[in-house]
């Protein structure tokens, strides 16, 4: 791993751990596929989603797509997913130009959140 990438990853983890996650009232469990396009690759976008999702105990995955966008399958309380999506949309080192959200059926066969390489 390059020195630059390590520094960036350390910063992303530090930043993601500083985000104050509000106390939400319990909400329904949902699964959503979110596609972010714009300047979202090579800026620690997946790592940021991963760190925040872990903190909020969401399950699913995040991956880069060949077209330069980032796709995430997020399952958990709807209020937490909405919070995560809004965090990512307002991230300063990235630039989300377009976002699509699709509701998906709940999956019972997952219990963690992963970065897909």
TrEMBL record:
Molecular function as annotated in GO: acylphosphatase activity
Domain Acylphosphatase-like, residue spans: 31-117
Lineage top rank: taxon: Bacteria
Keyword field: Hydrolase
EC number: 3.6.1.7
SUPFAM superfamilies: Acylphosphatase/BLUF domain-like
Active site: 46, 64
InterPro entries in the record: Acylphosphatase, Acylphosphatase-like_dom, Acylphosphatase-like_dom_sf, Acylphosphatase_CS
Catalytic activity: an acyl phosphate + H2O = a carboxylate + phosphate + H(+)
Top-level EC class as recorded in UniProt: hydrolase
Family under the similarity heading: Belongs to the acylphosphatase family.
Record-linked PANTHER family: ACYLPHOSPHATASE
The name this protein goes by in its record: acylphosphatase
Organism: Paenibacillus albiflavus
């Amino acid at each position: 791993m390059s020195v630059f990438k390590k520094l960036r990853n350390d910063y992303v983890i530090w930043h993601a751990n500083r985000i104050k996650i509000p106390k939400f009232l319990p909400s329904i469990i949902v699964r959503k596929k979110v596609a972010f396009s714009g300047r979202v690759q090579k800026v620690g976008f997946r790592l940021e989603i991963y760190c925040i999702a872990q903190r909020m105990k969401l399950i699913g995955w995040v991956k880069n797509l060949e077209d330069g966008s980032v796709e995430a399958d997020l399952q958990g309380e709807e209020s937490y997913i909405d919070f995560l999506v809004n965090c990512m949309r307002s991230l300063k080192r990235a630039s989300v130009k377009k976002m699509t959200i699709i509701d998906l059926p709940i999956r019972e066969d997952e219990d963690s959140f992963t970065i897909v390489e």
